[in-house]
């Protein structure tokens, strides 16, 4: 009797965990389809934009960054990270301790407009 009862409890727990896993994997995919871009602001004052992966390391892909111009207005320009002079790949691993804040970009933001044009 105890074996049957233990088996039934284990089976119920496994089914519940499977349902939770399917639910969360579906939710993540539906969120990522619409607009997966985030702004990441670092302690250095640098701001990067891209898609994020949080596990096992914090990784930013499809990376863009803001660069200040030298004109009097203090304008900023948006550049692809992979187009930098040192020829990096389009991915950055960021130390979590260096992140001040992270924010999801709105679909109608100016930054998203530039990224989507590319």
| Shape call | elongated
Low-confidence stretches: none
How many domains, in number, for the residues? 2
* H/I helix tally: 2
Mean pLDDT: 84
Element string (H = helix, E = strand): HEEEEEEH
Oligomeric grouping of the chains = single chain
Describe the secondary structure blueprint for this structure:
Layout: H1 2-34, E1 37-42, E2 47-53, E3 59-68, E4 76-80, E5 91-93, E6 99-104, H2 110-117
Antiparallel strand pairs: 1-2, 1-6, 2-3, 3-4, 3-5
Characterise this structure.
The chain is of the alpha+beta class and 118 residues long. 35% of the residues lie in helices and 31% in strands. It has 2 domains: 1-34; 36-117, Roll (SH3 type barrels). The chain has helices spanning 2-34, 110-117, and strands at 37-42, 47-53, 59-68, 76-80, 91-93, 99-104. β1 (37-42) and β2 form a beta hairpin. The longest helix is centred in the first third of the chain and has 33 residues, at 2-34. It is elongated, with a radius of gyration of 21 Å. The N and C termini lie far apart (65 Å). The mean pLDDT is 84.
Keywords:
118 residues, alpha+beta, SH3 type barrels, 2 domains, 6-stranded antiparallel sheet, 2 helices
Write a compact overview of the structure shown.
The protein has 118 residues and is an alpha+beta fold.
């Amino acid at each position: 009797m105890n074996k049957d009862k233990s088996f039934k409890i284990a089976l119920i727990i496994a089914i519940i965990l499977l349902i939770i896993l399917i639910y969360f994997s579906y939710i993540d995919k539906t969120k990522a389809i619409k607009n997966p871009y985030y702004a990441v602001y670092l302690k250095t004052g640098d701001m990067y934009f891209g898609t994020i992966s949080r596990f096992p390391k914090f990784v930013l892909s499809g990376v863009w960054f803001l660069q200040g111009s030298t004109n009097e207005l203090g304008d900023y320009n948006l550049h692809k990270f992979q187009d930098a002079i040192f020829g990096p790949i389009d991915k950055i691993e960021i130390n979590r301790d260096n992140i001040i804040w992270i924010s999801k970009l709105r679909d109608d933001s100016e930054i998203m407009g530039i990224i989507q044009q590319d």
